[in-house]
Structure formats: structure tokens, C-alpha cells
């Protein structure tokens, strides 16, 4: 039996050599390699300024901090996301307003965002009706971009800033239609676009992140806050042209990226599009292999999205199998096939239900669909044998647990 991990990082000799060169250089923390990584990353996504930090969570925290998020304010964000998207709002004492998702893409549903704002004003949400909504954080789930024109339009009408959680979306792009040129995620798509370089992301530095913005003042503010609110980072102080002196401008954070991490990032970035193409070909192989499997619902291809394919999520069709998702996962594990679930929605976690009173009925789509969802392995360097092992396992489990029409029609005695 071929064991398949959920993810295996694609680290090559170039990354290893660059890390060794960094160690030999004697400059380990934020320095020339971070600066180069920032420059190259901004150019790759089409943004003007990039600030390298040690996680996407840090990038989002800095973004909402420089947008002056405060207690008494609220931010719309999807319930179908990872902890980080909402916790950064809590760091500043503001309140997340959870929004339901599209049942197929899992991306935030803007119609529900409209409803949530109206319900907030009418005092029909569990959160305090006097909160002032100031921002929205869309998440490009799995690397399939949200319609950013619709988000921008929504944000303009409601006077909200937009911060993108692009943890999954390097590299990704979208266009409203085939007549419009592609716009890359980060190419002016939000006030700040935040990426993750966590161990299993599409570009990894082990841990790491980037905040991209076209606004020079926001970038400078985030850069300073990322290093204790100092006027000058270590490279600026101790580099050849630096000055030893600095001023503390704010009570900042310790979020800077190391040059060791940037050394990995530089080479991952250079291979970013070729790794994306490898994931896309795996996604296409899965789509073809599962096309006729009526027990499984598949992600759809969209001509107006350049998908990063960070995840390949499938949904078990309701009523089609005699096992639930968790049993399906256990069976995959027995066959040594890696998997993950993205995600138990935020409102079904004790912190958000107990603190704010969110209930399944406030977010019915996410409440239902997450229980049928799972993510299959997809990573560059996945072998044909590994792809076949995943395909065979899903086919076999589906065949063994299929509810036939005859069974479905059998009267309950
Ligand atoms: C949607 C989303 N946002 C944010 C994060 C946090 O990224 P990081 O671990 O780099 O802080 C993750 C991590 O998995 C994520 O999936």
C-alpha cells in the first residue's frame, strides 16, 4: 500500500545552499535577504510594498492595527476560515461579525454579509447592535479568489476597508470576465493583502508571512510595528550605511522575519508558478478521475480564476454513502492516505459560540457543508503512484459504502 502524506514541502538544493550561505554570512536576522525577498515578492504579486513578517497572523494583526481598528468596532469575516482571521480582530478588542459561505467554493457569501449588516442594525445578531462595522476580511479559500470587484463595491457602499487573508492565494489571480486582464492577488486588490509561508503553504519558509500594500505610509507603519515600533531595524542600524540610533515610536510587536527564512523564501518564490502548475495538474487528474463518482462533489474550474490549488477540497454528497465524513476519514487513514478538514467553522468553536452567542442557525450553509467536507493531498512533487493511491482509495471507499437506488427506495419497516 502506498502511504501518501497530506503535504510534503518541495525544498530543493537552491534553498539548502542559500540557507547555508546565510548561516556562513553571519547575518541571521532581518537583513539583506529579507529585503530582497520583499522586493521580489512585491514584484511577483504586483504590489508596491511588501513587509516580511514571521506569519500571516502577524501580517493581518499589523494590517488591522495600522487601519486603526478599535474596541466598539466590528469586522465582517467568513465563519469558514482558520482561527487567525478572526483572532487578529480580537487582539484589538474589536468584534468579528461572522458571515456564511458559498456551499461550493466555501468563500464568503456577500449576500449574507448584506444580511448580517442589516441584522446588526436591527439588533438581530447575537453581537452588540451598537458596534460600528469598519472592515471586511475576505479569505480566498483553497486559493480560489473571491470576486474582488464585488467585495470592493460592497466595501465602498458600506464604507469599509478591505484586508485580504491570502494565506492560500499565492500565486492566484482573477478577472471579472474574459475581456478584462488578469489581476493578481495583491495587485491593488485590498488595502493590505496578507500571505502565509507556513510549513504546508504554497510557498514555505517554515513559518513566515508577508503584508503587501500600495500605500507607502501603511507599509512604513507596519514595518515599524513589526519590530517593537522602532524607527530603524537592525539592518538599518548595523548595516554598512546604518546609524546605531533609533526611537521607539509605538508599543510594537516582535514580528520580523529572519534572513534564514527569507533564504528559503527567495527560491520558493522563484519556483512559485511552476509549483502552482504542478498542483493544477494534480487537481486536473483528480477532477478527471472523480468526474463520474456521484458520491463526491468536486471543486469546479472557473475560467476567470487562476487557482493556486493550495487545497483540493471535496464534499461527500448528502445521502449517497452509508458512512459519515469522519468514518470516511478514518478509512482513508487506515489506507495511509493523508487528509485534512478545512475547517470546523468559527461559530462551532467554544470561544466564538460562548463569548458571542453564535449558533448554527446564524450560519446555516457552513454549519451543514463542513460536516461533508475533506481535503485530499495536493503538493508539488507528488508522484503518479501517490496520485493513483489517493484516487483508488476514494473510489474504493465510495464503492464499498455506496447507497444503491434500491436501498434508498426500500421502505422503512
Ligand atoms: C485562511 C488562513 N488564514 C491565516 C492562516 C495563518 O497563517 P500563519 O500560520 O502563517 O499565521 C492560515 C493558516 O493555516 C489560514 O489557513
Short summary:
The chain is α/β, with parallel strands linked by helices. The chain has helices at residues 13-25, 32-45, 56-66, 83-91, 110-121, 148-157, 216-225, 234-238, 259-270, 272-290, 325-334, 350-356, 364-369, 384-401, 405-409, and strands at 49-53, 73-78, 95-99, 132-136, 161-165, 173-174, 183-184, 192-196, 209-213, 296-297, 305-306, 312-316, 373-376.
Identify the notable features of this structure and list them briefly:
13 strands; binds pyridoxal-5'-phosphate; alpha/beta; Aspartate Aminotransferase, domain 2; Aspartate Aminotransferase, domain 1
What can you tell me about this protein's structure?
The chain is α/β, with parallel strands linked by helices and 413 residues long. It has two domains: 13-272, Type I PLP-dependent aspartate aminotransferase-like (Major domain) (Aspartate Aminotransferase, domain 2, 3-Layer(aba) Sandwich), CATH 3.40.640.10; 273-400, Aspartate Aminotransferase, domain 1 (Alpha-Beta Complex), CATH 3.90.1150.10. Helices cover 39% and strands 13% of the residues. The protein has helices spanning 13-25, 32-45, 56-66, 83-91, 110-121, 148-157, 216-225, 234-238, 259-270, 272-290, 325-334, 350-356, 364-369, 384-401, 405-409, and strands at 49-53, 73-78, 95-99, 132-136, 161-165, 173-174, 183-184, 192-196, 209-213, 296-297, 305-306, 312-316, 373-376. The strands form three sheets. It has a seven-stranded mixed β-sheet with strand order 1-9-8-5-4-2-3, sandwiched between helices. Helix 3 (56-66) runs parallel beside helix 4 (83-91). It is globular and about 80 Å long. The model has no long low-confidence stretch (mean pLDDT 96).
Amino acid at each position: 500500500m502506498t502511504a501518501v502524506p497530506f503535504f510534503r514541502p518541495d525544498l530543493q538544493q537552491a534553498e539548502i545552499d542559500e540557507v547555508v550561505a546565510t548561516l556562513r554570512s553571519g547575518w541571521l536576522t532581518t537583513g539583506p535577504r529579507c529585503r530582497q525577498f520583499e522586493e521580489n515578492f512585491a514584484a511577483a504579486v504586483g504590489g508596491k510594498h511588501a513587509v516580511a513578517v514571521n506569519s500571516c497572523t502577524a501580517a493581518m494583526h499589523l494590517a488591522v492595527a495600522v487601519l486603526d481598528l478599535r474596541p466598539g468596532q466590528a469586522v465582517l469575516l467568513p465563519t469558514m476560515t482558520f482561527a487567525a482571521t478572526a483572532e487578529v480582530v480580537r487582539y484589538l478588542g474589536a468584534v468579528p461579525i461572522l458571515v456564511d459561505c458559498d456551499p461550493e467554493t466555501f468563500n464568503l457569501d456577500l449576500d449574507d454579509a448584506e444580511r448580517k449588516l442589516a441584522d446588526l442594525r436591527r439588533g438581530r445578531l447575537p453581537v452588540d447592535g451598537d458596534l460600528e462595522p469598519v472592515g471586511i476580511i475576505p479569505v480566498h479559500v483553497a486559493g480560489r479568489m473571491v470576486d474582488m470587484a464585488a467585495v470592493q463595491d460592497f466595501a465602498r457602499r458600506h464604507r469599509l476597508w478591505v484586508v485580504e487573508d491570502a494565506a492560500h492565494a499565492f500565486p492566484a489571480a482573477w478577472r471579472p470576465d474574459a475581456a478584462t486582464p488578469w489581476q493578481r492577488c495583491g495587485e491593488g486588490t485590498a488595502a493590505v493583502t496578507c500571505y502565509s509561508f507556513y510549513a504546508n503553504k504554497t510557498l514555505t519558509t517554515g513559518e513566515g508571512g508577508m503584508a503587501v500594500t500600495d500605500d507607502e505610509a501603511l507599509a512604513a507603519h507596519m514595518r515599524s510595528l513589526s519590530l517593537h515600533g522602532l524607527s530603524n531595524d537592525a539592518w538599518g542600524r548595523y548595516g554598512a550605511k546604518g546609524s546605531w540610533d533609533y526611537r521607539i515610536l509605538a508599543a510594537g510587536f516582535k514580528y520580523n522575519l529572519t534572513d534564514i527564512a527569507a533564504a528559503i523564501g527567495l527560491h520558493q518564490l522563484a519556483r512559485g508558478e511552476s509549483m502552482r502548475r504542478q498542483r493544477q495538474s494534480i487537481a486536473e487528474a483528480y477532477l478527471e478521475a472523480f468526474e463520474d463518482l456521484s458520491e463526491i462533489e468536486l471543486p469546479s474550474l472557473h475560467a476567470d480564476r487562476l487557482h493556486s490549488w493550495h487545497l483540493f477540497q471535496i464534499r461527500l454528497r448528502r445521502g449517497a454513502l452509508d458512512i459519515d465524513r469522519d468514518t470516511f476519514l478514518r478509512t482513508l487513514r487506515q489506507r495511509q492516505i493523508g487528509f485534512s478538514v478545512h475547517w470546523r467553522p468559527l461559530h462551532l468553536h467554544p470561544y466564538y459560540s460562548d463569548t458571542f452567542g453564535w449558533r448554527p442557525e446564524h450560519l446555516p450553509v457552513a454549519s451543514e457543508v463542513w460536516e461533508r467536507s475533506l481535503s485530499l493531498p495536493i503538493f508539488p512533487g507528488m508522484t503518479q503512484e501517490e496520485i493513483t493511491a489517493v484516487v483508488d482509495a476514494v473510489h474504493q471507499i465510495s464503492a464499498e459504502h455506496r447507497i444503491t437506488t434500491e436501498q434508498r427506495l426500500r421502505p422503512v419497516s
